[in-house]
Amino acid sequence: MTEIFGIPIQALMGQLVLGLVNGSFYAMLSLGLAVIFGMLNIINFAHGAMYMAGAFFAWMGLTYWGIGYWWALILVPLAVGVVGIVIERTMLRWLYQLDHLYGLLLTFGLALMIEGVFRYYYGASGLPYSIPEELTGAINLGFMFLPKYRAWVVVVSLVVCLATWFVIEKTKLGAYLRAATENPRLTQAFGVNVPLMVMLTYGFGVALAGLGGVLAAPAYAVSPLMGSNLIIVVFAVVVIGGMGSIMGSILTGLSLGVVEGLTKVFYAEASNTVVFVVMVIVLMIRPAGLFGKEK
């Protein structure tokens, strides 16, 4: 059996793949956070709750209405996006001119309320969601068997993240979004409906979290705690990448997932804290984050 630094290559590659899967979720969730903060200046602490809601909506669709995984990939992000739009129109719109702390406190309270509702009805234990038949099994790579579903998660996350980056950074719509953020009055004077763009931006950001929840449902147990367990790590990813940096969130999320996976192989005790250690080091060297803009 081939070994690297005394570690069997099968174990090493297995943790590397698992790290890529976790990194894919980190990237997608931190991307949604970066879009919302970069465009709206709102620190959305409810993002983890939207991720959890996405997983539960997929589970409820399958359990109560027979809506399978493939339809859930389309319908659930739309449903979560609509919930986000309602939140933005009824609550967040009044906070844009206030300090970031107000938005953080409001979304933190919303996250606790949403989590409490799901915990009341479904308990704290996980609920199973089966992998779709088309994605069961594994691919033989010679040195390991790669589960098809894990490969699917990585590919979908990369496609969604890169497509979002392209739209925001390279298209006219993205230019309008950035202009509306920097100077909303001037942008509106040119005929751009700024409130509509703000509303849709928040809806899209939380829809990304909902999509992440659907992807996570077959990979992990569907639980009311799944969002709160993940959101702190995702915030660390956003801080390391740079608040509001789209590409920074994508690259940092994937990289830290791999680092976390490899840490489990070489020093398992540090795997739960390695992301925060990296965050402290980065903030000491570059307070704006790796890809953030220094003010």
Q: SSE layout and pairings?
A:
Layout: E1 3-4, E2 7-8, H1 9-40, H2 47-64, H3 69-90, H4 100-122, E3 138-140, E4 145-147, H5 148-170, H6 172-182, H7 184-189, H8 194-219, H9 226-241, H10 246-266, H11 274-285
Antiparallel strand pairs: 1-2, 3-4
Helix pairs in contact: 1-5, 1-8, 1-9, 1-10, 2-3, 2-4, 2-8, 2-9, 3-8, 5-6, 5-8, 9-10, 9-11
Protein model, in words:
The protein has a single domain, classed as ABC transporter involved in vitamin B12 uptake, BtuC (Orthogonal Bundle). The protein has a two-stranded antiparallel ribbon with strand order 1-2. A two-stranded antiparallel sheet has the order 3-4. The longest helix has 32 residues, at 9-40. Strand 1 and strand 2 (7-8) form a beta hairpin. It contains eleven helices and four strands; from the N terminus they run ββααααββααααααα. Helix 1 (9-40) runs parallel beside helix 5 and helix 1 (9-40) runs antiparallel to helix 10. It is mostly helical and 295 residues long. It has helices at residues 9-40, 47-64, 69-90, 100-122, 148-170, 172-182, 184-189, 194-219, 226-241, 246-266, 274-285; strands at residues 3-4, 7-8, 138-140, 145-147. It is globular, with a radius of gyration of 19 Å. 71% of the residues lie in helices and 3% in strands.
Q: SSE order in H/E notation?
A: EEHHHHEEHHHHHHH
Record field, number of beta strands: 4
Please mark out the parts with pLDDT under 50 across 5 or more consecutive residues, or reply none: none
Give the strand order of the largest sheet, numbering strands 1, 2, ... along the chain. Answer: 1-2
Largest sheet: 2 strands, antiparallel
Helix content: over 70%
Q: Which percent band covers the strand fraction?
A: under 5%
Quick one: overall form?
globular
Instruction: Return the average pLDDT rounded to an integer.
Output: 86
Give the CATH level 1 class: Mainly Alpha
Into how many domains do the coordinates divide? 1
Second rung of CATH, namely the architecture? Orthogonal Bundle
- The Cα radius of gyration reads 19 Å
CATH topology: ABC transporter involved in vitamin B12 uptake, BtuC
Total helices: the number is: 11
